[in-house]
Amino acid sequence: MSDSPVSLHAHPAHLIDGVDRLEFSATRTGSDLSLRYDLFGNVSRLEIPDGMGGERRHELWRTTCFEAFLRAEDAEAYVEFNFAPNADWAAYQFTRIREGRSDLDIPAPRIELKKTTERLSVSVMVQGLSLLRRGSRLELGPTAIIEGKEGGLSYWALHHPSNKPDFHTSEIFKLNLD
Could you name the CATH architecture of 6-177? Predict the structure, then answer.
């Protein structure tokens, strides 16, 4: 995948006001991964974590959070990244879908936020990711969870394979990362 953006889509059963569209792009350079999420809409209608952040934290998905799922092509094992707009983050590795979860040992990613009334951009740099050094073809599944100020969560992905939002499925890995 180049740095050309692709559109993520909201799960139709979980819509909120405030998001017109959400775009994602990624680039790989050696063992580094650059991700960018651009949300367009009425940002004042969204619940955006703020504060100093920068800490490794669990359960970031309970509010606005940008995620990426990554695996070697057709592998069962995969990693999950969670990035909050305030720079809190989490990284996990799984042996197979929803099994064998453990913390992924990586340096803290660099997360930068740019926010206006109509746009929220989150740029992430993950460095020293050993999975990227293996030389195999990689598959990526970008996702996001967006919380509205009036409550409710919307779930964003390239593809929603069922009537229930679920990012932990093999169908989530839709992009090839060269």
Answer: Sandwich (2.60)
